[in-house]
Amino acid sequence: MSLAGKLLTCLLFICMPLQVLGWDWQTKVSVSVKDQPIRAVVELLEKNYGIRFSYSRDLVNLSRKITLTVHQQRLKTLLEDLFGPDRIRYTRVGDLIVLQPPSQATRTISGYVQDGITGEKLPGATIWSPSLQQGTVTNQFGFFSFTTTADTSAVIISYIGYQPKWQQLSSQNKFLSVSLESTTNLEEVVVSAAESHKLQNQTQMSKVNINSADVRSQPKLLGEADLLRTLQAIPGVSGGMDGISGIHVRGGSPDQNLILLDGSPIFNFSHFFGVFSLLNADLVKSTDLYKGAFPARFGGRLSSVIDITLKDGDMKQFHGDVSIGLIAAKFDLEGPIIKDKTSFIVSARRSYPDLLYNTVVSLKDGNNNSSLLAYFYDVNLKVNHIFSPKDRIFFSYYKGEDKLSVQESEDKSAVVDTTRLNTEFNRFQMGWGNVVTALRWNHIYGPKLFSNLTANYSQYAFNTEVGYKYALPGSNEMGDQYGRYYSRMETGGLKLDFDYRPEPTHSMRFGAAVNTHYFRPSVSTFVDKGSNVTPLDTAANGPKNTAVELLLYAEDDWQLLPSLYANIGLHASAFMVSGRLYHSLQPRMGLRYMLPNNWAVKAAYTHMNQYIHLLSNNGTALPTDIWVPSTDKVGPMTSRQVALGIGKTSNKQAWEFSLEGYYKTMHNMIEYTEPTGLLTADVLRWDRNVSIGKGWSYGGELMITRKKGKLTGWLGYTLAWSTRQFPDINNGHIFPYKYDHRHDIELLLNYAITKNWEFSAAWRFTSGSPLTLPVASYEGVETGSPWDPSPNGNTPVDKYSSRYNYRMENSHRLDVGLTWFKQKKTWSRSWNFSVFNVYNQQNPFYYFVKRDDVEKQRYLAKLVILPLLPSITYSVKF
């Protein structure tokens, strides 16, 4: 073929109708008309490029004549020039361009969505316009703002667990207070028009909402429903060892989780060394877990945000709940102080293992006496008052504490050997707890602008005391030794948030905050009253630090193109401590692109900064771990995370599917170079005893959820890697993080057998955690020390190849629960029967090396703390 022929072929191929290749807004088109109606241009685009239009000739007028010649112009530009003068609107729906009549006058409806019986505001309720195919959702305070065209006659307002409601609209701006009626028939709750709840219609990714029903319906450990155990069943969230309520999100450590209780941070979210979470689950209204793609309004942590909102209290009538389980009892009461104006809710919970132990176990053995005191308690109070339709305040208070005390005494007066003690008394006591308060003011400036002002205070304190008394026979000499270790962390702050919604496809949030942190990580005292030696007391010279943190943020969520949506934000912060100023600019971006068949592809980039550190020798946040600020030697931790995913909710909202992949880098991570104990740690110079390194985590998460019908629940799978690298640890080589689990599988099911019976089951599989073990050992020199555990006084010396060079065995277990409930006219009662670890799987809690003195060998043994555990709980609601 000649050169001219080849050029002609290429030219024909380039200029061939795009109906063969498809089209988008960037498609280049060529059109030429003279004194023709706009309809002629539309027909040419359909004929030559396969771009189909849909419109009503009665509503859209295309008769205006034009003269137009364009060559290789973007389709988007042509349509703007073509339809702009007549204000004709156009939107792509699938492969169609839908034309709509000129924009009409708009009006804005705003207000609150609430429970029709209690007046409780409903966060996440959907407001949907079927005619516009647009909608919005209420914020965490139940407020919404929705701008519609003047010809929109009604919207549908719906919320899971409530009957949907058609709300007729007037022709002007209107402030509404919409009440929804609850229903027990979940099949009728969610209508197909409630599109805003669907995954494909939310730009936010890596977010999971947990409602109180999800928590209460799961099998219970020792009769206690637990929020964090439910969160641990989410893909990407690991709980560490079996039975521990600490959480590790996408390869992060426990201190990298920002846990907010009504807007106030909590620094330790557990009771009983992590077996139970801090909160009575019956008080929780909603919980949002962010695993990544963090909105700009959140900051200060690297791995996750757990935003917990408590119930406000019934505005109409009094009612409550009393529950008694195997290990704890609790009650809550709520009602109006001034009907429809002021309400309250109060709750208290107390465990009683100490009472069971002292009753069941014999505390006297010969001359020995012992006692155990071990329990936790927590109390909650929340009051809210409506000043006007546009002003409302909330006051929240929480106090929780754990106590552990062991006392032993022995009478040795019958012993003849005068070198021995006559009497001996030992006491060990440990306690830790949180105090959290918040005062919040909601104000509505107009139909599109909402604000929330929060003043909060949080405190976490830990205390350990050790006492030892003795008396020598035949003398008046007495020994009385006492030691105490104490630490405290406090935060107080003020934050102002604005929520602005100019139109359904565009919403903005912005705000500012100031927080003051007070650190007292180590105060120790040791006194020996039987000695002339000056006692050790660091109460006066222990480390004290005060830091001020400032932040500004702004985020914007809007529709860029017909199929492309974005959430772009910026979080700016500064941290001032000990004359040092740290500052950070943290960009956040999320994108959503709509695919055919209502699938949504989402992508996100997140930069996070954390100015405070947790000193710990383990991967689980125990009460002995202490918080410290960044210093001139140890800077703030930083992370950068990218994520890509796809998601969809089925048309009838019965099923939900999401698949996400992520990659995260972390810098300025800290870890002790050598193991150290609670009382031996040099907290005053902690930044000289840690190594500074970096970490990586990456993986994929799959979640399939069944949301409607008698059988509900979810199946989750996580494939993940998490590693660390420190220059002074493991010879500078990369090693796996302590809770690097390769595979996690979670299956949660809830089945409504009958109207009065409900069955639940949860099965989880987790790959083994990394474990450091010696590769060889040999006998050391003879020491002759009476404390030497070796029979000949030879100290065994272990040889290690690398850190975390082995893996624990895989763990898995099945928990089941059966609940019976009976509804009376004014009250209800229920029995819950649960079995934890049904098939008694021996999952390891801790590994240790034991020595067989006969065989002259050492072997690895494991400690199992949670075998098969049945429980029963009785509850009365009134």
TrEMBL record:
One of its GO terms (molecular function) is siderophore uptake transmembrane transporter activity. GO terms for cellular component: cell outer membrane. Residues 223-301 form the TonB-dependent receptor plug domain. Keywords: Receptor, Signal. Pfam families: CarbopepD_reg_2, Plug. InterPro entries: CarboxyPept-like_regulatory, Plug_dom, Plug_dom_sf, TonB-dep_rcpt-like. It comes from the Bacteria. GO terms for biological process: siderophore transmembrane transport. PANTHER family: HEMOGLOBIN AND HEMOGLOBIN-HAPTOGLOBIN-BINDING PROTEIN 1-RELATED (PTHR30069:SF29), TONB-DEPENDENT OUTER MEMBRANE RECEPTOR (PTHR30069). This is Outer membrane receptor for ferrienterochelin and colicin. It comes from Chitinophaga dinghuensis.
